[in-house]
Recover the amino acids of this structure.
């Protein structure tokens, strides 16, 4: 039996961490997951992660070679290999995460933030194959973005380019966990959608299934289900979210003029409920020369695997070049 | 006497067109200008331009070789060589401008929009020498921008990347000549500054030299002079303009994370009156990871020559590579 080349892709989220062994064609041959446990130190987390990975490896019942480890993590800095001030994690100001992993594993280790990883995944294994200019937005608990220009991920002078979640929608708007006000991710994210629905419940008198729920019960998933059934208020919450998203996407197009903007992450699974009105609003906000040059599409990667594929793409893209 | 290599740089504006012969070191050895006459067809304009250039050439009293012609023009498309729907010019929907010039002149002809030319000029001859990530904003009658990522001008999928003048400040805001509302250039430009001053005259009761002028007499230059003398209302107009500029620059940083943002064009000559408050506001609107990574600076090119140098840089950058 031929030895199979594999890359370990690890996606570290605020709540869960997923990992998987990915071959050169982008097939996840084995995967696993563990709770991130945000109170853990980085060391403690890595020890647990390592145990999980070692246990999983036993499932690889064919000869293989591990070619590298790619990691997607919040606030990761690609060239420094660090994770810096990650929101919701007790890892301190700066952890040399790549070094900590390398300490235990010999092969090449590379790290970047989750949205950049998603963009690389889309480029290598998804809908952006062969594309020179595109962008990926991950919309879930927060809003992240990875921007590709001339076939390369944009890191910029700081190494942190592409934090569209913290562009300004309204300078006097909703407080953001980053300390600023009115950031895009306070409107376009799972908590943002919930907040918009709650505001509409207060300000409008339309009947809605949301009125039968306690505030605690109202989640983005519930709003999605109600909107799918035609609930007027839930639909209005999606429409308002889509308008803000469309407006800021038009701004993004004015910067780097992508051919496609891909949406991924939990909230993007609302599909056409978000995508269609966002595309319409984006077109109305687009400067004339851009109209007809840019599409808004769902990620072409399987939702459950896109984060792992993105992390693995970080290594595969370097090995394939 | 040694033959000198020269590039002809042409900057076409809505009112005036300037041109100059530029050597490899970025010295303008001879320059000229003519009114653009917006009602002229592109053909008629080029015939006049050609006559002016031929007449100027007589001033080149040393042996030289013309290595190419670089052109900065509104709504120019670099790879197509076209000027498309230029605002304030009677050139129709699409003119193959590079071909029309090539028809009369043998050497290589290259065209791009004026803000992209400004960015190339800054990179070759100005403050961005050796820089990988920066941005140039030209603030005058309108607001244009040229974005450089990884040492290369960003053109994007449409070829028109970097139209920051048409990002949205307020979706219900001032009507823009582009047909949208609340575009950045309706606030941050010479006419935008005047409009802001007029609004402040209406809404505030502070004493101001502006109250002694007719609306027609109030120009950005007058507001600049009054602000320099401490006029509270004129200063407030600059402050409001700087706040909007700072907010949208922070958004721009979140996209491509430049090391420096250079300001050029008529309004930017207000210098510290605009630059200092814009820098302060930008910092308050910046997402944490970007703070301290980006500077706002005036262009290092001589104001009267920057547009010509930019246009010439279009050819020199291709010849130097």
């Amino acid at each position: 039996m031929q030895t199979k080349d594999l890359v370990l892709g690890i996606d570290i989220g605020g709540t869960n961490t997923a990992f998987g062994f990915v071959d050169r064609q982008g097939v996840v041959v084995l995967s696993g997951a563990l709770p991130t446990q945000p109170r853990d130190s980085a060391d403690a987390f890595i020890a647990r992660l390592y145990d999980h990975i070692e246990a999983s490896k036993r499932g690889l019942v064919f000869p293989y070679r591990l070619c590298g480890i790619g990691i997607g993590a919040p606030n990761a800095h690609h060239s420094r290999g660090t994770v810096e001030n990650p929101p919701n994690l007790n890892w301190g100001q700066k952890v040399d995460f790549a070094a900590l992993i390398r300490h235990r594993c010999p092969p090449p280790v590379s790290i970047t933030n989750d949205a950049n990883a998603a963009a690389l995944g889309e480029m290598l294994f998804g809908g952006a194959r062969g594309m020179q200019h595109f962008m990926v937005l991950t919309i879930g608990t927060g809003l992240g973005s990875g921007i590709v220009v001339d076939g390369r991920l944009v890191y910029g002078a700081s190494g942190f380019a592409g934090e569209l979640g913290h562009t300004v929608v309204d300078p006097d708007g909703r407080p953001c966990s980053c300390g600023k006000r009115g950031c895009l991710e306070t409107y376009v994210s799972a908590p943002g959608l919930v907040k918009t629905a709650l505001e509409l419940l207060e300000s409008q008198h339309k009947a809605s299934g949301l009125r039968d729920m306690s505030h605690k019960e109202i989640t983005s998933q519930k709003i999605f289900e109600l909107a799918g059934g035609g609930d007027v208020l839930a639909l209005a919450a999606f429409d308002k979210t889509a308008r803000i998203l469309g407006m800021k996407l038009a701004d993004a197009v004015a910067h780097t003029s992508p051919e496609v903007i891909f949406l991924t992450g939990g909230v993007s699974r609302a599909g056409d409920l978000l995508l269609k009105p966002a595309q319409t609003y984006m077109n109305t906000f687009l400067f004339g020369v851009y109209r007809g040059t840019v599409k808004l599409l769902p990620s072409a990667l399987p939702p459950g695997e896109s984060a792992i594929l993105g992390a693995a793409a970080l290594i595969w893209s370097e090995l394939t070049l």
Remarks:
- The interface with chain A takes residues 75, 84-85, 132-133, 147, 149-150, 152, 154-164, 166-168, 171, 178-180, 183, 247, 250-252, 254-259, 285, 287-290, 293-294 of chain B (CB under 8 Å).
- The radius of gyration of chain B is 20 Å.
- Chain B has a mean pLDDT of 94.
